[in-house]
């Protein structure tokens, strides 16, 4: 591993800031893991490569973010320990990213909903008071824009496509939409981090996110479900039944051969 | 001991592992070379976060510098400012085109927002036959940095190095 010059002064993060950094890293990591499941299984070769490339981008972002989180924490945990050796309750990703891929339509619609959020979030984080985080965000933003553009095009193509593709895209949106509420749920960590100028409270992004997402869904001729009361707790470490299975696969090597490097 | 100028010269011969027609210096990822008492320090800015070639590039750099006579080499990663395809020089762009990869168009790093739908203002010209009757097959090609296109005139596929 080459030396990182991310400048995080070791051990300077408050518990709230660490929580926030882990959320960022875990979202990228878990969606990266989900997208990588498509490798060798996508409907066409071009999309197989696209999904695998996006998975690589996300895992790359997760490496940077978790390295930064570990350095900021100052307890000597590196990217691998954070990615592979935590227990389920210690992951801070939203439920949306851990849901099973479902069909190609569901994966694409999720990528769209989530990458639009990432574009906004990384955009704001690129002027973070945490210089290391700002650098990671400015870099990741460029990648997230391509992910969003890819997913938006597919969402439109499927939604405004054949009767079958429309129904599948609509079913995907109906399934995923309630989980997006969690992105914008207020939390004490968000408030503390926003007050410190490190990043936005996620709830601040909701209106902008809708401005970005709704026109595309309209163009895709999809009906946006009504908001229903829905509580998810992934941000606080309480995950769906799908998370354990995902971790069992993802952590297998490190659990079987602790400390293995390659 | 290797001087900084000699080090830059050695680095100019290190190819990108994915696109060997351009060197790491032409890609613009070598940001700084510093010769100090305890060897050479090279600052590298990675391209994409998940680029699988990153570690390979670091080891090729070290190998090339050691072979050129450097006593000790250390490689630092710098993320800020983020790498942009704008750093690829004009000579390297022509090398890419001759190799069958259309170089990035326009400027990537300036401005904030990007249109949600990429509607290409001017169609890409096929690097083989020059026809502009081309169509995009996928936003992501063999690597994240390239999109896959097809020429409808000569029917050959080609890649486009995306502006980022």
From TrEMBL, chain A:
UniProt-listed SUPFAM superfamilies: Ferritin-like
GO cellular component: cytosol
Pfam families: PaaA_PaaC
InterPro entries: Aromatic_CoA_ox/epox, Ferritin-like, Ferritin-like_SF, PaaA_PaaC, PaaC
Transmembrane intervals: none
Signal peptide as annotated in the record: none
Gene Ontology biological process terms in this record: phenylacetate catabolic process
Source superkingdom: Bacteria
Coiled-coil intervals, chain numbering: none
Name of this chain's protein: Ring-1,2-phenylacetyl-CoA epoxidase subunit PaaC
Species for this entry: Azoarcus indigens
TrEMBL record, chain B:
Residue ranges annotated for the PaaD zinc beta ribbon domain, each copy included: 122-162
Gene3D superfamilies: Fe-S cluster assembly (FSCA)
Residue span, MIP18 family-like domain: 4-74
Family matches, as InterPro entries: Fe-S_Maturation_MIP18 (IPR052339), FSCA_dom_sf (IPR034904), MIP18-like (IPR002744), PaaD-like (IPR011883), Zn_ribbon_PaaD (IPR056572)
Ranges in a coiled coil: none
Name recorded for this polypeptide: Ring-1,2-phenylacetyl-CoA epoxidase subunit PaaD
Naturally occurring in which organism (per UniProt): Azoarcus indigens
